[in-house]
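Input record, target 12 of the design panel.
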């Protein structure tokens, strides 16, 4: 069965304006930083809903939209997630990670403790749907990792655009997230994003990003 098609309505810019738009967005996103210290100032559910819908506008294989975004604000649930995550992180920092990995993390100053999982007003837990269930029957999804990865990029951009901050958190393994949030077996945890305003005393590493010549090749 063919899907109806409608005319595409592009955003119209002059060449000069297009360059300005591209530069402005480049500069805007370059201000984005990973933040691990959150304010307890509330963020409305409506804002979080818009962030999720922005993420869900991402392209996906065969338009299957193989994602579920679980928005968590309940303190007890956040506490349970932190407890389980810190257990996995402790094991990682004390045996799973290589010495080289630990050395590379030293300039950032991270450790197994993750207080931001309770401090941030919201946690958005992204699940990938490895398949769907339609009338009790398994239905394939395609390019799931790629599709969900793109959606997460959209989400991080939307968080920054709303004047909020986040940190990409991937405790390994992450199966505990599915259990705590009671997700079905076809969904697998992909990424955990605390979302909120930065603490007034929030600090970030003084990193420099690679320049255009370092990250591109032109043919």
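The sequence produced for target 12 reads:
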């Amino acid at each position: 069965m063919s899907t109806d098609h409608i005319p595409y309505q592009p955003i119209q810019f002059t060449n000069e304006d297009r360059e300005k738009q591209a530069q402005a967005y480049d500069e805007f996103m370059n201000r984005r930083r990973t933040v691990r210290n959150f304010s307890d100032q509330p963020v409305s559910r409506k804002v979080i809903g818009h962030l999720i819908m922005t993420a869900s506008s991402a392209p996906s294989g065969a338009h299957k939209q193989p994602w579920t975004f679980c928005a968590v604000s309940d303190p007890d649930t956040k506490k349970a997630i932190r407890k389980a995550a810190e257990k996995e992180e402790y094991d990682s920092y004390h045996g799973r990670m290589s010495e080289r990995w630990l050395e590379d993390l030293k300039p950032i100053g991270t450790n197994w403790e993750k207080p931001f999982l309770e401090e941030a007003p919201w946690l958005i837990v992204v699940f990938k749907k490895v398949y769907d269930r339609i009338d009790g029957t398994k239905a394939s999804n395609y390019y799931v990792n790629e599709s969900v990865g793109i959606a997460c990029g959209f989400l991080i951009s939307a968080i920054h655009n709303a004047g909020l901050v986040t940190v990409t958190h991937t405790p390994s393994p992450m199966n505990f997230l599915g259990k705590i949030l009671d997700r079905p077996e076809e969904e697998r945890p992909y990424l955990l994003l605390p979302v909120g305003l930065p603490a007034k005393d929030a600090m970030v590493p003084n990193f420099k990003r690679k320049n255009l010549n370092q990250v591109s090749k032109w043919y």
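Strands lie at 67-72, 122-129, 131-134, 137-140, 165-166, 187-196.
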